[in-house]
Amino acid sequence: MDIEKTASIAFERVKGISELYNRLLLVAGPVASGKTTLLRRMSALSGYPMLNVGMELSRQMLELTERQRIIELPKRLEDLISGRGSHVVLLDNTEFLFLSDLKQDALALLKGASRNHTMVVSWLGTCDHEHLQFGTPDHREFKTYSRSGLELIELRR
């Protein structure tokens, strides 16, 4: 992967989604495909804040009961993103949002948050012409979504 070229493409895509209802750009790829590297490079070049969603949310929700976590997750995610004070936010390690115990539709959460913020989000999974998948079929939280209406950059190993 040419990180500079891919970052350039991603910046152009960010400009293109800035006026959409859902300002969400997913960077999809399997483990070790360069998602985090791309987000770090974008942050270094632009100053956009990069959030480790799994680390931040798990830390915030550690003391909550299971029921409280389910209720609080959407608000905590929105507060985490809003607290960065940037019109574009880069989200990494989003696997936390897919935990089955949280009983959430992770893509719906991300779409909801992207109504108020332009977001570039790492997505552990793959896509084809019609579908976006989270994880692999043997993964506990494996999910398949329609690709329709989603802005994607696909990375491969």
Write the layout of secondary structure elements.
Elements: H1 3-17, E1 24-29, H2 35-46, E2 50-52, H3 53-61, H4 66-82, E3 88-92, H5 106-113, E4 118-127, E5 131-134, E6 143-146, E7 151-154
Parallel strand pairs: 1-4, 1-7, 2-3, 3-4
Antiparallel strand pairs: 4-5, 5-6
Descriptive overview:
By secondary structure, the chain is α/β, with parallel strands linked by helices. The protein contains five helices and seven strands. Strands 1, 2, 3, 4, 5, 6 and 7 form a seven-stranded mixed β-sheet that branches. A hairpin with an 8-residue loop joins strand 5 (131-134) and strand 6 (143-146). It is globular, with a radius of gyration of 15 Å. The termini are close together.
Would you kindly provide a brief summary of this structure?
The chain has 157 residues and is of the alpha/beta class. Helices cover 39% and strands 23% of the residues. It has helices at 3-17, 35-46, 53-61, 66-82, 106-113, and strands at 24-29, 50-52, 88-92, 118-127, 131-134, 143-146, 151-154.
Helix % is 25-40%
Strand portion: 15-25%
What is Rg?
15 Å
State the helix count: 5
How many β-strands, per DSSP? Answer: 7
Q: Topology as H/E string? A: HEHEHHEHEEEE
Instruction: Based on Cα principal axes, name the global outline.
Output: globular
Based on secondary structure, the structural category is alpha/beta
Count of the domains: 1
Overall mean confidence score, pLDDT: 93
Task: Report the biggest beta sheet as strand number plus sense, adding barrel if it closes.
Answer: 7 strands, mixed
In terms of per-residue confidence, which ranges show pLDDT below 50 for 5 or more consecutive residues? none
